[in-house]
């Protein structure tokens, strides 16, 4: 499971002006200091060589992320882009949730919109994803441009990062809790 805390981000900045490195700061509701990003890898061509600043016009608390989420994120870039197309629903969340429950989601009005998608694989928290069509984005002029080889190399790295993450997640779900292992050992000792 990924850390998805896009609603509580108030604003942020991503700097990819140095090839092979993505840095940034994310300000979260209720936190005085920003989350620091220091990641190895490259963004997709739409943000390669650029600085991105963004503002969430309607941040909302996400108390489930008040604990456990490291404010210093190091690791590897996943997919980082600002031009992925997503459906943006044109009604409040309560309305489309009700439509979903009533199996009339097809009636909800929507448009295709550019989405900000920030994904990374953190050394401390695993996979983190910020995906939204709601932020106001500003992209700087480009310092350098990614070519097809750069994009193919980053895609291979992203695929490997996701594979490793899924393997770790699978191992975590398949492991017995330490208490269960200790009980099994106690039962073996008693039987032996």
Could you explain the architecture of this structure?
There is one protein chain. With 192 residues, the protein is of the alpha+beta class. It has one domain (6-147). Helices cover 26% and strands 35% of the residues. It has three helices and eight strands, in the order βββββαβββαα. Strands 7-6-5-3-2-1-4-8 form an eight-stranded mixed beta sheet. The longest helix is centred in the C-terminal third of the chain and has 27 residues, at 148-174.
N- to C-terminal separation?
41 Å
Shape: globular
Number of helical stretches of at least 4 residues: 3
What spatial order of strands do you see in the largest sheet? 7-6-5-3-2-1-4-8
Q: What's the Cα radius of gyration?
A: 20 Å
Q: Specify the structural class.
A: alpha+beta
Q: Can you tell me the number of structural domains?
A: 1
Major beta-sheet overview = 8 strands, mixed
Q: Estimate the strand proportion.
A: 35-45%
Share of helix, binned: 25-40%
Order of helices and strands: EEEEEHEEEHH
Tally the beta strands: 8
User: Whole-number average pLDDT?
Assistant: 87
Poorly predicted parts: 180-184
How do you describe this structure in short?
With 192 residues, this protein is of the alpha+beta class. It has helices at 93-101, 148-174, 178-191; strands at residues 9-15, 21-28, 35-40, 51-55, 72-89, 110-122, 126-132, 136-139.
């Amino acid at each position: 499971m990924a850390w998805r805390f896009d609603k509580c981000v108030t604003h942020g900045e991503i700097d990819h002006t140095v090839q092979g490195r993505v840095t940034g700061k994310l300000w979260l509701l209720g936190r005085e200091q920003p989350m620091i990003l220091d990641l190895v890898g490259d963004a997709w061509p739409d943000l390669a060589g650029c600085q991105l600043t963004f503002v969430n016009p309607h941040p909302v608390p996400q108390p489930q992320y008040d604990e456990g989420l490291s404010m210093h994120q190091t690791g590897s870039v996943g997919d980082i882009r600002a031009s992925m197309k997503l459906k943006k629903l044109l009604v409040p969340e309560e309305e489309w949730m009700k439509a979903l429950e009533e199996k009339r989601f097809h009636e909800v009005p929507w448009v295709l919109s550019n989405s900000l998608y920030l994904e990374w694989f953190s050394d401390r928290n695993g996979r983190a994803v910020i995906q939204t069509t709601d932020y106001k984005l500003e992209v700087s002029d480009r310092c350098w441009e990614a070519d097809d080889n750069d994009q193919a190399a980053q895609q291979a790295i992203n695929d490997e990062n996701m594979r490793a993450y899924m393997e770790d997640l699978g191992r975590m779900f398949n492991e017995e809790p330490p208490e269960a292992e200790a009980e099994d050992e106690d039962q073996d000792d008693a039987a032996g």
